[in-house]
UniProtKB/TrEMBL annotation:
It comes from Conidiobolus coronatus (strain ATCC 28846 / CBS 209.66 / NRRL 28638) (Delacroixia coronata). InterPro entries: Fcf2/DNTTIP2, Fcf2_C. Residues 123-140 have a biased composition (Basic residues). Coiled coil: none annotated. This is Fcf2-domain-containing protein. Residues 1-20, 113-140 are annotated as: Disordered. Residues 1-12 have a biased composition (Basic and acidic residues).
């Protein structure tokens, strides 16, 4: 292999020297779920503003880490081992406040959608525009 081919192969397998040669990550189902939760983080904390993420594709380079507390925080702000979760999804679903909020919002949406009726259909199709001059019976 030439030097150029080697450099190209190395560039594809890592994020580069500015990112400390972070390797490409393997996408497991857990990782996909965690990345999806991170994309939807504005739903998790509704009082905090996050910029819109325009990337629809999952990132090629990423790493997950663990927060390690300082030894002086042993009694003040430590999370017990049994309360720690292995993934972000488990952590979010174990929180009672967020679970309550998600359930309430889900029920509100279901109530609106299942109400049916004329007004619901009218509002739902309000944004659609009718096609002019193109119908089933006409030929162009």
């Amino acid at each position: 292999m030439t030097k150029r081919q080697e450099a190209k192969k190395e560039k594809a397998s890592s994020a580069g020297p500015k990112w400390f040669n972070m390797p490409t990550a393997t996408l497991t189902e857990e990782a996909k779920r965690d990345l999806h939760i991170i994309k939807l983080r504005n739903v998790l904390d509704r009082k905090r503003f996050y910029k819109k993420d325009n990337n629809k594709a999952l990132p090629k380079f990423f790493q997950f880490g663990t927060v390690i507390e300082h030894s002086s925080e042993f009694y003040s702000s430590r999370i017990n081992k049994k309360d720690r979760k292995s993934t972000l999804v488990e952590e979010v679903l174990s929180d009672d406040k967020s679970k309550e909020y998600f359930k309430r919002k889900f029920n509100e949406i279901q109530e609106v959608k299942s109400s049916g009726g004329k007004d619901y259909a009218k509002n739902r199709f309000k944004g659609y525009k009718k096609a002019k001059g193109k119908g089933k019976g006409k030929k162009n």
